[in-house]
Specification:
- With 178 residues, the chain is α+β, with helices and mostly antiparallel strands.
- Among the domains are: 46 residues; 69 residues, no CATH class.
- It has five helices and four strands, in the order H-H-H-H-E-E-E-E-H.
- The protein has a four-stranded antiparallel sheet, covered by helices on one side.
- A hairpin with a 2-residue loop joins strand 1 and strand 2.
Length: 178
């Protein structure tokens, strides 16, 4: 090995750590740039959800000046806002009409078991009583085309017997036999 080769070798050995440090620095820069890109993408996806809605100035002016909101659609007003309470005559007329609807439905559409034929209709209800079993009051709820029966009240009339809950239907020795 001559002096020239030794000098070149020494020069290349001195460059190796510098080159390694440069590669390491560039890899770190690449990682940071990739991280920044991913963060910016995440922010761009979440940012539209964080918008604040514009203030409704027209509604605020209506409410503050008149005390009411005059732009409420009529459909919402009719459905959810009660106008005035019904009078006793209106309630009575409504219950009478409902009684008529219940009578027609029971006579025309429903199959009533023989033990429940002794029903009575009044106050917007049909009351069925089966002695020693139950008494139930039903009413119709919904629009005329899709009215369904709803239970208003239910009274259980079954009573326990002196011999126990089975009313003497079973002999004790049969129930307790080994």
């Amino acid at each position: 090995m001559n002096e020239l080769e030794a000098a070149q070798m020494l020069h290349s050995i001195n460059k190796a750590p510098f080159e390694q440090n440069a590669v390491k620095f560039l890899l770190q820069q690449n990682q940071q740039i990739t991280s920044a890109i991913n963060s910016l993408y995440g922010i761009s996806q979440e940012l539209p959800k964080a918008r604040i809605r514009n203030y409704d100035i027209a509604t605020a002016v209506d409410v503050l000046t008149t005390g009411t909101y005059g732009r409420l659609p009529q459909a919402i007003q009719k459905t959810y806002i009660t106008q005035e309470p019904l009078t006793n005559d209106e309630i009575s007329d409504t219950l009478t009409r409902l009684d008529d609807v219940i009578r027609m439905r029971l006579l025309r559409d429903e199959v009533i078991p023989p033990s429940m034929k002794g029903y009575r209709v009044g106050d917007g209800r049909a009351v069925f009583r089966v002695d020693n079993e139950f008494e139930v009051a039903l009413t119709l709820v919904g629009r005329s085309s899709e009215r369904r029966w709803h239970i208003v009240s239910l009274e259980i009339l079954v009573k326990s017997s002196k011999e126990g809950g089975f009313g003497g239907m079973f002999r004790p020795n049969v129930l307790c036999s080994p």
